[in-house]
Every structure is written in C-alpha cells, then in structure tokens.
Design goal:
With 224 residues, the protein is mainly α. Helices cover 38% and strands 3% of the residues. It has five helices and two strands, in the order H-E-E-H-H-H-H. A two-stranded antiparallel ribbon has the order 1-2. Helix 2 crosses helix 4. The chain starts with a helix and ends with a helix. 4% of the residues are buried.
C-alpha cells in the first residue's frame, strides 16, 4: 500500500469518527429530552393526575406527613411575626348592651350597668357612599353702608344651579388610573361599585388632562 493510499484511509477514518461522535451527541440529547418528558407528572408539571398511570411515567413522590420534618409548621422561633396589635386609642367606641328580657321576665333595659365586661376591636373600612351635598351661597347686607356681600362658592363647584363631582371623587379617578393603570371604563365601574356615584367614562378620562394641568408647575420644577 502506498503512502498516499494510507493517508486517504486515515482521513476517511477520521471523518467517520467525527460523524459517529456527532450522531452520538445528538442521540444523547434526544435521550435526555425523553427522560425529562417521561419524568413529568402531576407533581412537577401541569399534567393531570390521570396521566401518572401511563406506561413509563414516573409517579410523583408522596408528600411527607405534616410535622414529620425537622422544621415545625407555623412561625419559627426568633421570627418577628405579624399580628394585629391592640390599640389603646381606637377611632371609635361602640357600646353594646344586652337586649330583651332577663330569665325572670324583667326587661333588661331597666337593669343596672355593671360596666364593660369584655372588649373587641375590629379593623374596618367605612362604607364610602357618595353623598349629594348642596352648598347654599348666602348674601348679606351690611347694616352700616347697605352694601351686599356674597359668600364664595366652595372650590370645585360649577355654575350655580349645576351639579359637579367633588375633588375627593375626582382624586379617586386619577389615583386609580395613574397609580394602578386601571382602564377608563373599569375605573368608572369601580367608582360606581364602591360609592354609588356614576361618573361617565368621558368625565373619568378628562380627569387625566385636568390633573396633569394642575401639577404642571410642580413637574417643571422636578425636571429642573
């Protein structure tokens, strides 16, 4: 065999070895992918529990019994914890007295008050129902010179004889849209659900431009 033929055989062998290595690497990737697919079950994926019984499927591991591990359930020693603290200065105090009759038949409304027997504190949100408040602007005549003076209308009031939404309701609209990215129509529906007021989507959308104009000078100072 000549030297040229030997070199050709060696080159063909090296090419075959490189081809086999590439095929082997591809097969290894396929096997790994199949193993991952087979290992999926209802415990580690979105598969339904009924798929755990399929041939070749690895069943999920059983859950350890509660409290069987080293870590006890609940708060751990040394943790700060979170709880509702009792307040010594509640915002309001509502007395409750027993009603009806005593076991002897006497009315409890005539019974002697023995004082507070127990106290309970509830953290509650008051109902935020929209109220229609009429502001009557009065005029007075000076007793000295006879000049007529008229009181100023409250801020945010429209023309006399018209109805307008107050600044607090307007602030709700801007807060929901600007701080929480709530769409205009959903903001109007949320205001109605929480307060009973029914602002139109056009009014709610217009509040963005009015709010931007109100804080324009502050924004300019911040940019500077």
């Amino acid at each position: 065999m000549s030297r040229a033929e030997l070199l050709a055989l060696l080159a063909e062998r090296d090419s075959r070895i490189a081809q086999l290595e590439a095929e082997n690497a591809d097969l290894a990737r396929r096997v790994a992918r199949l193993e991952r697919l087979i290992s999926r079950n209802s415990g580690n994926s979105s598969f339904p529990p009924s798929a755990d019984d399929l041939p070749g499927r690895t069943p999920p591991r059983g859950k350890p019994p509660r409290g069987g591990g080293k870590r006890k359930p609940g708060g751990q020693p040394g943790s700060a914890g979170s709880y509702l603290a009792w307040r010594d200065d509640p915002d309001d105090t509502v007395p409750h007295f027993p009603a009806g009759q005593c076991g002897c038949g006497a009315p409890l409304s005539d019974a002697a008050d023995l004082g507070v027997a127990a106290s309970h504190q509830l953290v509650e949100v008051p109902l935020s129902l929209a109220r229609v408040i009429q502001h009557d602007v009065h005029a007075v005549r000076c007793g000295c010179c006879g000049r007529v003076c008229r009181a100023a209308a409250p801020e945010g009031a429209g023309r006399p004889g018209t109805v307008a939404y107050g600044p607090q309701l307007q602030a709700w609209c801007v807060y929901l849209m600007a701080a929480h990215a709530i769409p205009v129509h959903r903001c109007a529906e949320l205001i109605e659900a929480l307060t009973g007021a029914r602002p139109s989507p056009g009014f709610v959308h217009g509040m963005l431009a009015r709010a931007a104009a109100a804080i324009r000078h502050a924004n300019q100072l911040i940019r500077r």
